[in-house]
Every structure is written in structure tokens, then in C-alpha cells.
Write a structure and sequence with these properties.
With about 400 residues, the protein is α+β, with helices and mostly antiparallel strands. It contains nine helices and twelve strands. Bound molecules: adenosine-5'-triphosphate (ATP) and magnesium ion.
């Protein structure tokens, strides 16, 4: 029986040992000596400590102290020094056999080589760490490049807005001059009424009120200009496209009038808002209006008609600008959206390209189609704000004509 037992213990694919009640080692199987290269007589008394890595010693000692006789199995990972000085990881499984009437309790155990597993785990952890830092880095780089892209887009958009200012100077001057001359006329009338004998107080009050109204009109034009031409930062909010269209028209109506353009407005009721930057959308509308205006400048054989229409379906809000101008050749319908593509002598060729990039940044679409008759229709569709209330009803299908 003892021989059989010995054969089994020697055949175990692990280092096996048995400790004395005092803590010394009673027995090691041959694998211990083969692995450590230690001598039987010389090192047996020192037990496992003879080969345990100094960094793992305290854990081994501590485990012996905390492993009470009642705790039957206890596991610990330690490094054992091989005969050639190399340390390998082992799983130390301690087993405590309770005392019987004849025998004191004994502790025995096995040490299984887990070095390959530990290396694989470490490699995996390193791989995972690389992967995580790669994800974090690419995430960071993506955010950085998105930021740069947004900044570039907003700077370019600002440039093209400032370029439009040049075109609009005359009509803006007109917009401001009108209320200013009203103010001067009313203020002089007011003075006359006050110095009259008897003074016309009611008349003076009324003209003073008109002066204030004109002052507000001029201030409004200036404040619209300031928002449209000075702003360079993006601010996403729930935008009412009808309102934005009206504001852009307030700045361009003199330009449209000056060029004999008849403008019809067909703004849908209860138009859902779109999550976007109000000034950016106004810039898109402005670009489309100026293009439409420029496309009709040389048209003399038919009315110069401009239609601005808004509408929506279950998912999108749409705005279209339809003109009766020179139109776009079928082969150019996409080319016109390229940056720097222009057929105009003083054009930059940036208006449509910037506009498309703005609309696409809000997951929308900007396109052009040829009209059945003359001219072209430029339209964009933007995802509607889901959780937002529709805008209050505007006058039903308001149609305004400027001429
Ligand atoms: N409504 C339109 N009808 C016909 N052609 C148009 C219309 N809108 C744009 N185009 C064509 O597309 C080209 C590009 O338009 P885009 O607005 O990008 O640049 P641009 O008007 O030439 O210059 P800018 O950068 O100053 O706006 C125009 O030069 C014109 O040939
Ligand atoms: Mg343009």
C-alpha cells in the first residue's frame, strides 16, 4: 500500500509535500528536488521558504498563520525559484487534516505550475490595456478633429456671411435709412407741435410715439445684423424655420425689391422646430436667397418670381427656395455644391458648399432640382425636434409680396 501511494505521489504533475506539526517539512516528492535543484538533507528543514520568491514570502507566512486547522483547503499564488535561477508561478494548494485521537493535525499540499497561464493572463491584460488606451486615444482624436472641423466650418461660414454683407450693404443702408428719416421727420413735427400756441400736446405725443417706433425698427435691423454677421460660435437650440426665414427676409427685402423680384412666402402652420444653430440656418437661407436673386438678375423676358415655402412630414421639416432664374444644367446639379465652384465673376463659390455642410452637420439634406418651367428649386430638409412643441400658428399660409 505504501509503495502504491509513493508511486501515485511521485507521478502527480505537481510538487507534493507534507509539513510537520511544528511547521518543518516532513516530505517533498522528487519533483521538488528536480525543480529546485536543492539537496535532500541540506534544505528539507527550511521547507518551501528555501525556494519562494522574497516578495511572496510574507504572504506564505501569513497564510500559514491565518489558515486555521479547521480551514481545510487554502490557495495561494507564489513564485518558486528553479534550479537555474528562473522564478515560475505556482498555485500552492494547502490542505489541513484535522487531528485524530492518535495523530496530531497535519498540513500537506501541492504546488502546480501555472506560469504559462499567468503569462497568458498578463499578455491579455496588456492587450486589453492597449486596446482601451487606443479607444480612448481615437475617441480623443475624433473629438479633437470634430472640434477642429466645427471650428473651420463656423469660420468659413462667418467668412461667407461677411462676403454677403457686401452684397447687402445697399439694402441694409436703405433698411436703416427709412426709419431714421422717419425719426427726423417725426421729431421735427413733434417740436413744431410743442412750440405752437397753444401747443398741440396730443399731436406731439403721437409723433413722439412714432419716433420711438421708428427708432425700434432701426435698432432691430442693427441687432439682426449684429447676430448674423458677428457671431462665430455654434449654439444649438430649437429653431423655428418660419421665424428664421422672416428675419432673413427683413434684411434682404430691399435687395429683392431693388432687383424687381416678386417674393411669395408660403409658410406652413404649426411647423415643428429643428434642433440647430439659428444663425447658421439663417446663413443657409440667406445664401439660397442671394443665389436665387443673382440667378434672376439677367432675366428680362418673364417675371422674376421667388417662392419660399416651408413644410413638414412625420420626420423632417423642409424649406424650399424656388426661382425663375437661369436654372442649372442637369450635369451641374451636384457640381454646384463643390467648394470654389462658381459661374459668377465675383462669386467665391463657397455659399452652397458651406450651406450643405451646415445642413449635413444636423443630419439633414440640401439639394437642388430643376423646375419644370424656368429656374431651379433649392431645398433642405432637417430632422424635426421630437420632444419640442410645434411653433405657434402663423397667419394661415401667409403669402407676402414684395415689390
Ligand atoms: N438659384 C440658382 N440658380 C442657378 N444657378 C445657381 C443657383 N444657385 C447657385 N447656382 C450656381 O451654383 C454656383 C455655386 O453657388 P455658390 O453659392 O456656392 O457660390 P457663388 O454664389 O458662385 O459664390 P458665393 O460663394 O459668393 O455664394 C453658382 O456660381 C451658380 O453657378
Ligand atoms: Mg452664392
Amino acid at each position: 500500500m505504501n509503495n502504491q501511494l509513493n508511486r501515485v505521489i511521485e507521478a502527480l504533475p505537481a510538487i507534493a509535500w507534507m509539513a510537520t506539526a511544528e511547521g518543518g517539512i516532513d516530505f517533498f516528492n522528487q519533483r521538488w528536488y528536480d525543480y529546485t535543484g536543492l539537496e535532500l538533507e541540506h534544505d528539507q528543514r527550511r521547507g518551501l521558504e528555501a525556494a519562494v520568491h522574497t516578495e511572496d514570502l510574507s504572504r506564505l507566512v501569513q497564510s500559514r498563520q491565518t489558515t486555521a486547522p479547521s480551514e481545510l483547503v487554502h490557495e495561494l499564488e507564489i513564485r518558486l525559484k528553479r534550479f537555474d535561477g528562473v522564478y515560475r508561478w505556482f498555485l500552492l494548494t494547502l490542505c489541513t487534516l484535522p487531528a485524530t485521537t492518535d495523530l496530531a493535525w497535519i498540513r500537506c499540499g501541492i504546488c502546480t505550475d501555472i506560469d504559462d497561464r499567468k503569462r497568458a493572463e498578463a499578455a491579455l491584460a496588456e492587450c486589453r490595456q492597449h486596446h482601451l488606451s487606443y479607444i480612448a486615444r481615437t475617441d480623443f482624436e475624433r473629438t479633437q478633429s470634430e472640434d477642429t472641423l466645427n471650428k473651420m466650418r463656423s469660420e468659413l461660414a462667418h467668412m461667407t456671411r461677411v462676403a454677403s454683407l457686401d452684397t447687402l450693404t445697399a439694402s441694409i443702408a436703405h433698411e436703416v435709412n427709412q426709419p431714421l428719416s422717419g425719426i427726423i421727420t417725426n421729431a421735427s413735427t413733434c417740436l413744431r407741435m410743442l412750440v405752437a400756441d397753444p401747443p398741440n400736446i396730443n399731436g406731439a405725443l403721437e409723433t413722439a410715439r412714432r419716433t420711438i417706433r421708428d427708432g425700434n425698427r432701426a435698432a432691430n435691423v442693427i441687432s439682426r445684423l449684429r447676430t448674423l454677421f458677428s457671431k462665430n460660435v455654434v449654439n444649438v437650440e430649437a429653431v423655428d424655420l418660419n421665424e428664421s426665414t422672416r428675419e432673413v427676409l427683413a434684411l434682404t427685402c430691399s435687395e429683392l425689391q431693388r432687383n424687381d423680384i416678386t417674393t411669395h412666402l408660403d409658410l406652413a402652420d404649426n411647423l415643428p422646430r429643428v434642433p440647430s444653430d439659428r444663425v447658421q440656418l439663417q446663413q443657409v437661407i440667406l445664401n439660397l436667397l442671394l443665389n436665387a436673386c443673382e440667378a434672376m438678375i439677367d432675366i428680362d423676358d418673364r417675371p422674376r418670381l421667388l417662392l419660399i415655402r416651408t413644410g413638414h412630414d412625420t420626420h423632417h421639416v423642409r424649406l424650399e427656395v424656388r426661382d425663375a432664374g437661369c436654372g442649372v444644367e442637369p450635369g451641374d446639379l451636384e457640381k454646384i455644391f463643390d467648394a470654389f465652384y462658381t459661374t459668377k465673376q465675383v462669386g467665391m463659390g463657397m455659399g452652397l458648399s458651406i450651406s450643405r455642410s451646415i445642413i449635413e452637420s444636423y443630419n439633414g439634406q440640401l439639394s437642388a432640382t430643376r423646375n419644370d418651367g424656368h429656374g431651379a428649386t433649392f431645398w433642405f430638409a432637417l430632422p424635426r425636434q421630437s420632444s419640442c412643441e410645434p411653433t405657434p400658428a402663423s397667419p394661415p399660409h401667409l403669402t407676402m409680396t414684395f415689390q
